[in-house]
Every structure is written in structure tokens, then in C-alpha cells.
Specification:
This protein is mainly alpha-helical. Among the domains are: 101-235; 281-352; 398-496, no CATH class; 598-667. The chain has helices at 3-7, 11-25, 79-94, 102-120, 125-253, 257-285, 291-349, 366-374, 379-397, 427-448, 454-466, 468-484, 489-498, 504-524, 538-542, 548-558, 585-609, 617-627, 633-644, 658-667, 677-687, and strands spanning 50-53, 71-74, 400-402, 419-421, 531-533, 568-570, 614-615, 656-657. It has a two-stranded antiparallel sheet with strand order 1-2. Strands 3-4 form a two-stranded antiparallel ribbon. A two-stranded antiparallel ribbon has the order 5-6. Helix 4 (102-120) runs antiparallel to helix 5 (125-253) and helix 17 packs antiparallel against helix 20. The two termini are 92 Å apart. 9% of the residues are buried. Mean pLDDT is 78; it is low at 1-15, 17-74, 647-651 and 679-688.
Length: 688
């Protein structure tokens, strides 16, 4: 049967009805035969037209009469053909061609007509059936290819739009950066021009001062020459007056001429000496200016030189900055070109980001529960959450678990042969059971005073509570739930300790850390109001070794439910858990910081060990003391014993690979004993 008939349930009924109708109406043969028994070649487009008869290639030679005119054939349209056309017209008129699949509906009557045609022409039925089947297979293949290509077309359209948006965003960002650089460059150019103008102005002032000094110097020389002439005139006037006075006194008193002549001679000698001395001083000090003017000009010149040196220094600095900015601009342009090339290469090869909102359609609880599960998580964490949801959903459908056997490598709590019944517990039930296991174990250890193995205690607890017959059922069910639910702290921590990935001390250390912080906050609440200010230093006092960024992360996590205007924090609510054991963001952040700080501590230890592939106990102790000088001897012995799985009293320990040492320390409770050098430097800078 054709595929079209299988898609339409009433196909066979309609075919049978049409055959019954045609058999009743067809009183004459539904086709015409030629003289040699061939099918009638009556054309479909002629009802009663005259048709020239031409010989067919398959006719006998005697039937071919060359040179004669072709005979004319006349005949009505076959009844069976009219019935088929009538049926086809009715079926097409009854179809609703406004639907989306109107073409497929329109094709169905033609399939039925073709099947009637095949059924009535028995001789050609195999060939016509093969043709019809090949067409049906080809149509089915084409439909399948179209359905497969439709999602790819939508994906290509979405990816193209996202890439276009990213390119436009990058171009806008680059335009903003280029505009900022151009503005900064223009500002620097304006500043350089301003400095050049100031330098030119200062040089003009220096030239003016030099001209002023030269003018003053010329004026002083002129005054010096005038002074010489004045002194000469005064000397000559004084000499004349003395001569006149002597002559008058000589005439009046009649003094001795010889005595006066001698006095005159001596006076002239003194005058000559004074004149020589005056000329010598004039020659020696003719170019000298007064000290007061010289000191004043020297001070002005010194100030101008100092100012010019300062401006020159500023100009040199600005020039260096300008050259640096040009270099940075060139490097930025190269990086931009490289990023553009990298972007184009990535756009050709990148994988589209998943649309995580689609998960809300298949996750129980809908969009609200998926929004709660996906809040604040990365893509890698969302994959874990999705796998956990899928795994728990599959786990509920499993009725039995295959047993692991009783081999030596099988854990004691999973040693069983055969199938084990699945208890189908909820996450809340699993969390309550594991918390009760911890409670019973710690109570037993307080009574006995020694630490017990968690796998053995886990099995004994289940046997004691549920009996030996059902213990393995509970053990397998709890184990599978812990293995799948990695996002839950209670389940994941119990699973890691149970399988030996993490030491039990790390679990107790984290709980003790949370308990100490809770007690510290309660102690700071002197009024017992249950609230503390977000600016309180209780967290800093409880964790003096944490960096400022870590303290700020804890404060932000404590304020995630508060408005921006609120300042009081309900510190008791920070330590609450929901029914599935999930803590508040504050405690989750505290535990993540514990793991991160331990990884940083061990990373410093690895860097201190350098390129060593194996390390001895003494070398490990030296490395610990170097990166953590405040570590005490007891803690150091504990860390070394954890790394070498032995005590310090065994001096002949062999070297252990560094990677093994780091893995063992990572599984244990390893913390810094004192502030690191970087934290100390940061604290010092904050104090300043």
C-alpha cells in the first residue's frame, strides 16, 4: 500500500467506493483498442474533434502508406476518463486549500486517480507501480531533508544576527575609544602649543632684558665719560682759582716768590699723581656697573633661567608623554586589528552559546524553579545542575540497581551480589539521613574518644537502623543520590569523604569555621537584638588573615536580601538551611573561600618547590616555613605526616612525587597559619 494511504485512514474506503461506483456506471469498455490491440491514443484535450492518424513507429510496414494522406479519426472521450476527471474535480472542490499543508491535501486525490489507473491497466501495473513508488520515496526523502534543514536555517539566522550585533557593539566600542584617544591627543597638542607659546614669550622677555641691560650699560658708559670731563673741568677751575688766589695773596702780603714757586711745583706733582691714579682707576673700572644694579640684574636673570629650565623640563615630560601616547595608540591600533581578525576567525568557527531558558520547559517546576536553580551560576555549573536534574529524574524511574559484587576493590557498604531494590528517596530524605549519620558518628566518637572510619560506620548505621536485609538497599539508594547531586553541599561532602577524595577533617574544619563565626557575631551583638550593621568589623575580627576583597565578598553576600537603603543585617538568618540542606549565600561563599584559600596556599607551596619532581620531608618543611613563617611545629608535623602518610620520627623517608604530596594536602585540612607577604603589604598600604 502507498504511504499516502497509510497517512489517510479512509483512503482504502474511498478507493473501494470509487471502484464500486465506476463498476456500476461503466456499461461499455473504459478504453478503446486499435486494430492491432494497442491502447487507444485518444487525446485528453479533444472531446469530438477530428484527429489525423499518423503511423506509429511500432506498426507493420504494410500499414505504412507513404505518399497517401493521413486518415482522420473521430471519437468521443472515454467514459472511464470522464469518470476519473469528475471524481478528481469533486475531490479538489471538497478540499480546504487554506490550510498549511494544502499542497499535500491537493496531491492526495491525484494519488488515488493514479492508483485507479494502475489497478485497471493490469499490463502496465508493475511499471506504473514502480514509477509511483519511486516518486513517493523521492517525495518522502525531500520532505525529510526539508524538515532537517529548517532548524539549521533558523540557527544560521540566529547566529548571523548575534554575530552582527557583536560586530556592531565592537565597532561602537572602538569608535568611543578612538574618539577618546583623539580628544586626548588634541588636548596634548593644545598643551604643547601653549607651552611653546609660553617658551617663545619667555625668550622674548629674555631678549628684552638683554637689550635693557645693554642700554643701561651704554648709559652708564656715557655718564662715566661725562663724569671724567666734569672732573677735568673742575680740576682746571680749581687750579686757576688757586693760581689767582696765590697771585692775589702774593700781591697783598708780598710773600716769598721762591716759596710759592716750590709749593706750586709740589702741588702740580700731586695733581699729576692724582690724575694718573684717576686715569688708572677709570681704565680699570670703566666697564664696571654699580654692585646694587649688578646684583639686581643677576637675580632677575637667575630667576628667568630657573623658570626657563622648569618650563623646558615640563616640555620634555609632555613630549615624552606624547611619544608614549603615540606608541600606545599604535599598539592599541595593532591590538584592535588583531582582535578584529581573531573575531572574524572565531565567528567562522565558534559554537553558539546555549539558550539555557529552554531548560525551563523540561525541568519540573517550570521557569520559576529553573530560575532559582540557575541563579548566579556559570555555564559549567548549569551543565552540572542540568545533569543532576536529568540524573535524579532517571533515578526515580529505576526500580533496581545491579550489585557491585564482593571483590576486594568494592567498598564495604556496596558489597552485594545480585540486584538491589531502589528505595526512591527524595533529596530531603537523603539529607536528613546523612545528617543523622554525622550526628550518630560524632556522638560515638565523643564516647569512645577515637575516630572511626566513615564507610564502616555508614554500613553499621544502616544495618542497625534498617536491618541487615534492607541495609544494602538503603546504601545503594543513598550512594546513587549522593553521586548525582553534586550541587548539594551535604550530599557532595559526604560522598567525597565516603569515597576517600577528601579527608573527614576538612568537613569538621568547615563546620567549626561556620560555628566560630556565628559565635563571634552573637558576641558582638551586645543588645541581643539579632541585628548587626553591615559596616561592623566582626567579620574582620573573626578572620584576621583574610584579604580585604574576601571580607567584602562576605559582606556583599550577607546583604543580598537587603535594599540599598537598609543597613541592619539579621545575622542569625545567614546560617539557616532549607529543607534540602542548601545553605544561604553567606555560608556558601565562606566555604568556597575556604577551598580557594587552600588552593592558593598550596599553589604558593608548589611555586616554592620550583622544578622539583620529588620532595623529601625536610625540603617540604623548609618550603612551608618559607611561605608561612608563623606556622607552629605541631601543625607543621601534621602537614608533613599528611603529605608522607607517616610521622616525623621516621627520618629515613623516601622522596615522594610533588603531585602526590599536593593531592594529599588538598584532600586534608590545610590552612595558612599567619598572614602572607602580599596580605601584609596590602594591610600596610591600607594603614597608610
Amino acid at each position: 500500500a502507498p504511504e499516502s494511504c497509510s497517512e489517510a485512514p479512509d483512503c482504502q474506503t474511498r478507493v473501494g467506493s470509487l471502484k464500486h461506483t465506476l463498476s456500476k456506471r461503466q456499461k461499455t469498455p473504459s478504453f478503446h483498442l486499435s486494430a492491432r490491440g494497442h491502447w487507444s491514443i485518444w487525446p485528453a484535450f479533444a472531446s469530438s474533434q477530428t484527429i489525423p492518424k499518423t503511423p506509429r513507429p511500432c506498426c507493420a510496414p504494410e500499414e505504412r502508406q507513404p505518399g497517401t494522406k493521413p486518415a482522420l479519426l473521430t471519437g468521443p472521450k472515454p467514459l472511464y476518463l470522464e469518470q476519473l476527471e469528475s471524481y478528481l474535480s469533486k475531490e479538489l472542490q471538497s478540499l480546504d486549500l487554506t490550510k498549511k499543508n494544502s499542497q499535500e491535501l491537493k496531491l492526495q486525490p491525484y494519488r488515488e486517480i493514479f492508483e485507479f489507473f494502475i489497478d485497471n491497466f493490469k499490463t502496465y501495473k508493475p511499471l506504473l507501480s514502480a514509477i509511483k513508488n519511486e516518486y513517493e520515496v523521492t517525495l518522502a526523502h525531500q520532505k525529510k531533508m526539508i524538515r532537517a534543514l529548517e532548524p539549521l536555517k533558523a540557527m544560521v539566522t540566529t547566529v548571523s544576527e548575534e554575530c552582527t550585533q557583536k560586530i556592531l557593539a565592537l565597532q561602537e566600542k572602538e569608535k568611543e575609544e578612538l574618539n577618546m584617544l583623539k580628544q586626548e591627543k588634541q588636548q596634548l597638542l593644545n598643551l604643547i602649543d601653549h607651552m611653546k607659546e609660553e617658551n617663545t614669550s619667555l625668550q622674548t622677555q629674555v631678549e628684552q632684558l638683554r637689550r635693557s641691560v645693554a642700554e643701561e650699560y651704554a648709559r652708564y658708559l656715557h655718564e662715566h665719560g661725562a663724569r671724567k670731563l666734569l672732573l677735568a673741568k673742575l680740576n682746571s677751575t680749581c687750579s686757576e682759582r688757586l693760581d689767582m688766589t696765590r697771585l692775589q695773596s702774593q700781591d697783598v702780603k708780598g710773600e716769598d716768590v721762591v716759596k710759592l714757586t716750590l709749593a706750586l711745583k709740589v702741588a702740580r706733582q700731586d695733581l699729576t699723581e692724582a690724575q694718573v691714579k684717576l686715569n688708572t682707576m677709570t681704565a680699570d673700572y670703566g666697564d664696571v656697573v654699580p654692585r646694587r644694579d649688578f646684583e639686581s640684574l643677576e637675580k632677575k636673570c637667575s630667576d628667568l633661567l630657573q623658570k626657563m629650565r622648569s618650563l623646558q623640563k615640563d616640555f620634555d615630560q609632555l613630549h615624552e608623554k606624547y611619544e608614549t601616547l603615540l606608541e600606545i595608540h599604535r599598539e592599541t591600533a595593532e591590538e584592535r586589528d588583531n582582535f578584529c581578525a581573531e573575531l572574524q576567525r572565531v565567528q567562522c568557527n565558534f559554537t553558539p552559546r546555549p539558550n539555557w531558558e529552554k531548560c525551563s520547559e523540561v525541568i519540573p517546576g517550570g521557569a520559576d524553579r529553573w530560575g532559582w536553580l540557575a541563579e548566579g551560576k556559570s555555564s559549567d555549573q548549569l551543565v552540572d545542575v542540568l545533569l543532576e536534574e536529568i540524573g535524579t529524574g532517571v533515578l526515580k524511574e529505576i526500580n533496581v540497581f545491579p550489585g557491585w559484587g564482593k571483590g576486594d576493590k568494592v567498598p564495604v557498604y556496596l558489597k552485594h551480589e545480585g540486584e538491589v531494590k531502589n528505595k526512591k528517596l527524595t533529596k530531603k530524605d537523603v539529607v536528613n539521613i546523612l545528617k543523622d549519620v554525622w550526628k550518630e558518628k560524632m556522638a560515638l566518637e565523643q564516647q569512645t574518644g577515637k575516630r572511626s572510619s566513615l564507610p564502616e560506620f555508614f554500613l553499621s548505621y544502616l544495618q542497625k537502623k534498617y536491618g541487615n536485609a534492607s541495609a544494602m538497599e538503603w546504601s545503594y539508594t543513598l550512594y546513587e543520590n549522593m553521586r548525582l547531586c553534586r550541587s548539594n553541599h551535604v550530599l557532595s561532602s559526604f560522598y567525597d569523604i565516603l569515597t576517600g577524595k577528601v579527608g573527614e577533617e576538612q568537613y569538621h574544619s568547615q563546620n567549626q569555621l561556620v560555628s566560630n563565626l556565628q559565635q563571634e557575631l552573637a558576641a558582638c551583638d551586645s543588645s541581643n537584638s539579632g541585628f548587626l550593621s553591615s559596616e561592623h568589623t566582626a567579620v574582620r575580627e573573626a578572620f584576621p588573615l583574610k584579604r580585604r576583597e574576601s571580607i567584602q565578598e562576605l559582606v556583599d553576600a550577607s546583604r543580598y536580601k537587603l535594599d540599598s537603603t537598609e543597613d541592619l543585617i539579621d545575622y542569625a538568618s545567614l546560617f539557616k538551611e532549607d529543607e534540602e540542606g542548601n545553605p544561604e549565600p553567606f555560608v556558601a561563599k565562606l566555604r568556597s573561600q575556604y577551598v580557594r584559600e587552600k588552593q592558593e596556599y598550596l599553589r604558593e607551596l608548589k611555586n616554592k618547590l620550583g622544578d622539583l619532581t620529588e620532595v623529601k620531608a625536610d625540603d617540604l618543611m623548609i618550603a612551608f616555613c618559607t611561605i608561612d613563617p608563623d606556622i607552629d611545629d605541631q601543625t607543621l608535623d601534621t602537614y608533613v605526616g599528611l603529605a608522607f602518610q607517616a610521622q616525623r620520627e621516621q627520618p629515613d623517608q623516601d622522596a615522594v612525587p610533588v603531585e602526590t604530596v599536593l593531592q594529599r594536602l588538598l584532600a586534608g585540612d590545610v590552612r595558612r597559619g599567619g598572614p602572607s607577604a602580599r596580605a601584609g603589604n596590602m594591610t600596610g598600604s591600607e594603614g597608610e
